[in-house]
Amino acid sequence: MKLLSLLLGSLLLPTLFTSGCRKDPPPSVNDYVVFGHFYGFCSGEQCIELYKYQGGKLYEDQRDYYPTSTLPYDGKWVQLEDTLAVLGEEVRRSLPDSMLLYTDSIFGMPDAVDQGGTYVELNRGGVRYYWVMDNFQGGLPEYMQPFSELVRERSRFISQRFH
User: Fold this and answer.
1) 53 beta partners
2) Which H/E stretch holds residue 132?
3) Whole-prediction pTM value?
4) Is 9 inside any structural domain?
5) For the segment 99-153, what is each residue's pLDDT rounded down to a tens digit?
6) Are 125 and 108 in contact (CB under 8 A)?
7) How large is the C-alpha radius of gyration of the chain?
8) Per-residue pLDDT tens for 51-100?
9) What is the rounded CA–CA span in Å between residue 140 and residue 160?
10) Which CATH number do you get for residue 156?
11) What are the angstrom distances between the C-alpha of 114 and each of 1, 39, 111, 157?
12) How are beta strands 127-134 and 106-107 bridged, if at all?
């Protein structure tokens, strides 16, 4: 019995010391997150604002194409000032892992009544996931609502900084 207790103790003790220290693995250089907002019934440069966070840098899309739910976004990216990269990192870290379980790429009815939409894309390990989300919180699963709001807040902040 003592031998069993010692054996179990030696196996469980390291787990106790390391289990509270779980950290997300660092993203590879090819991993990225794209995030932003879009409004179809709108005019001007701020109607479609998408940003890409990759490799510790934040980029703005120069194409300003309206995102769809059928394909990931194909942007033309220009680097922004380094001080804004923390906002991209915040979005990347806040993305709920449970979003990866959904096979649909559309949540709610984005921009159906001119309320606009939110776009998020994640490239993790070469797999691209993307979502087009309603700006009406009622059209989103409850766990996704704080993340969607964060994306809209950060994209508005970045957009107002440059326009």
Assistant:
1) 33, 58
2) strand 127-134
3) 0.81
4) no
5) 998 878 888 888 888 888 999 999 999 999 999 999 988 888 898 999 999 999 9
6) no
7) 20
8) 999 999 999 999 999 998 889 999 999 999 999 999 999 999 999 999 99
9) 26
10) 3.30.1560
11) 70, 7, 5, 21
12) parallel
